[in-house]
Write a structure and sequence with these properties.
With 146 residues, the protein is α+β, with helices and mostly antiparallel strands. 35% of the residues lie in helices and 20% in strands. The chain has five helices and four strands, in the order αααβαββαβ.
Length: 146
């Protein structure tokens, strides 16, 4: 699918606020609401737009700690870990990566004791390294249109 200038503007608007109406997007970029709706549908059908989500503050939900944890899996433990990690409520994001470690996870935890308990679950799969997140510098999962 071709991502032309209007599609880029629509994507930019939706990445800023996915709740914008087609009419509002149309007003911002200078096309009609039905044209916006049609373009969004085509972007969805092509897989360019693959979902909408609600962002929730972990802090406001009682999670006072965010950490980045890497895992270097023991021999034969990577596949079992990949199945198990999907069941951990603490894991916000998990990536299989190249390099010395196999996995990097972003996790949210209630406190230090919760972190300790969580790491205790992980160490049967491999060697972990943990870094506590102090602040978030960039907040976005958006790809900025070219």
């Amino acid at each position: 699918m071709k991502i032309d200038a209007l599609n880029r503007k629509i994507l930019e608007a939706l990445q800023t606020n996915a709740r914008l109406s087609s009419a509002e997007i149309g007003r911002r970029i200078g096309i009609s609401s039905p044209a916006v709706t049609e373009r969004i549908k085509k972007l969805e059908d092509a897989g360019v737009i693959y979902g909408y989500r609600t962002s929730v503050s972990p802090f406001e939900c009682g999670y006072q700690l965010k950490a980045i944890i890497t895992l270097r899996a023991f021999m034969g433990k990577l596949k079992p870990f990949l199945s198990q990690v999907k069941t951990y409520d603490e894991v916000v994001n998990c990536y299989r990566i190249t390099g010395n470690e196999n996995i990097v996870m972003e996790v949210v935890l209630k406190n230090q004791k919760h972190l300790e308990t969580f790491i205790d679950q992980l160490i049967s799969y491999g060697e972990t390294k943990t870094q506590i997140v102090l602040s978030q510098v960039v907040e976005s999962n958006a790809i900025k249109p070219l």
